[in-house]
Amino acid sequence: MTETDTPIEDEAPVEPAEITFSDLGLGDAVLKALRDVGYETPSAIQAATIPTLLGGRDVVGLAQTGTGKTAAFALPIIDRLDLSQKNPQALVLAPTRELALQVCEAFEKYASHLKGVHVLPVYGGQGYGVQLSALRRGVHIIVGTPGRIMDHLDKGTLDLSELQYLVLDEADEMLKMGFAEDVETILAETPDTKQVALFSATMPAAIRRMSKQYLHDPEEITVKAKTTTSASIAQRYLIVSFAQKMDALTRILEVENFDGMIVFGRTKSVTEEIAEKLRARGYSAAAINGDVAQVQRERTVNQLKSGKLDILVATDVAARGLDVERISHVVNFDIPTDTESYVHRIGRTGRAGRSGDAISFVTPRERGLVRAIERATRQELTEMQLPSVDEVNVTRLSRFDDRITAALAETERIDGFRDIVAHYVRNHDVPEVDVAAALAVVAQGESPLLLEPDPAPSARPFRDREDRDRPGRGDRDDRPPRRERTPREGMATYRIAVGKRHRVEPRQIVGALANEGGLRRDDFGAIQIRPDFSLVELPADLPRGTLEKLTDTRISGRLIELRLDTGGPGRRRDDRPRYDERPAKKPRHRSADRDH
């Protein structure tokens, strides 16, 4: 492999042996947890990595997301934990909050049959109090982002002196996000005797140098991702804002010719909410998740099989092992953040040679997940458009025609009503077609048969913006006017109250906003650093909760006061943005528990 950013598909694959997890040297408690979650045979990266790590050797694993690398490093760590030790024994560094939480959940799942294992996620955006309390009680495994881990090291609240295992997950992403210095500082703070596992999708020169400097005689394991989704499944995705998802689902149900469907939500509460709203719209839908008793789950699945239920709304865990022939469609209401979950979900359709359809809802800031899925599965997802009002109305009219045709076939009942209609026509002097229309109104009820046309999007006036500074220029007043920059589609320009005089760099901005707001690298556009403030392109549809967290973020100890850039001159500190420019402060709430 060269010292360049080489994708792993150019490497020779490591073929998985025909073995089971019990052949890898794992203990009974871990094997029992794997049976609980339905894992039978190890993936290529797991088969090659687990014995190596159990043997005490450092590892450099080159593998894309979705190849099972989390289990590859989590299982050996859990298997060798000393539960009597209070100080952290394992540290996993991840580039984003989402990945840190995902890895943390995986550890908890794999350690379900070991009593007293404590796993702590450490990331920006979460209060220090929760993390400090957990650290004082004792933690075996820490999964965190580099920025917040550095904060704890600087404050002296994190003791890594007894660390035995260190994992760098998605190391190339951490370097791209500007965390190289933080990662090396953390590595230097840990014991030389620790075992290190570094996982990366590519091997740029910086990763190669880091592995040579901090890893001891590592075994390099390369896995080529294979296509793991069935060719019989048509895979599509729809770009839609979070607020539009329910309406988008309803329109898809209107126009898609489906038999049975599974709609996947990320959390228990989301599945319940979707099922309730679908029932209110007249669909036969039910939810299954970790809170649903096994008896009720079996009853619901049987209803789906028999046709008494058309739509099942489920979480990943609840749908594991589900095999129902009539499932023609899978909808990812929330697109999963890892390829393994995506493959598992859409595999509920298109089984045993049958064709199937998979549709994923993707918010503008989740576009990167689509590309990651395509890279890992080697299959392209087709972008679809939200079904238009005309398409929905055509489908509704067709179904209405079918109902009329079916009713006309019931000749005996038709004859009886024909006399009633003729009687009404004679006595009220009303044309038969008007009577038929009136009967259709009675049959339809309060709900209109056809949708109203979508309103035309209102034109948004373009506001002139102040001249923008060009990177590398001084604060001279005689510089020429700067060219206007328009954010790319789906993005908006935000202003933060740190700039050149605060010695801020783009990598600090990306790192802070990514960790505090849970953003991905693909969520960032252009960054322009001015003398007193900076301009950052971010998704235009950032959720209110994310905006609130980012508003309270600090960079270099300074509150960034993030707000939409309106193009006006810089404000004084006592000239606060109006309500419509800055989200109102609300009490913080813990996010809904995930179903893992």
UniProtKB/TrEMBL annotation:
GO molecular function: helicase activity
UniProt domain Helicase ATP-binding: residue ranges: 50-221
Record field: compositional bias (Basic and acidic residues): 461-488, 571-596
A Pfam family recorded for this sequence: DEAD
Subcellular localization: Cytoplasm
Occurrences of domain DEAD-box RNA helicase Q (ranges): 19-47
UniProt motif Q motif: location: 19-47
Isomerase as UniProt keyword: no
Signal peptide as annotated in the record: none
Stretches the record annotates as Disordered: 449-491, 561-596
Main location: cytoplasm
Segments forming a coiled coil: none
Family: Belongs to the DEAD box helicase family. DeaD/CsdA subfamily.
PANTHER family, per database record: ATP-DEPENDENT RNA HELICASE DEAD, DEAD-BOX ATP-DEPENDENT RNA HELICASE 47, MITOCHONDRIAL
Function: DEAD-box RNA helicase involved in various cellular processes at low temperature, including ribosome biogenesis, mRNA degradation and translation initiation.
Protein name: ATP-dependent RNA helicase DeaD
Source species: Microbacterium insulae
Protein's gene: deaD
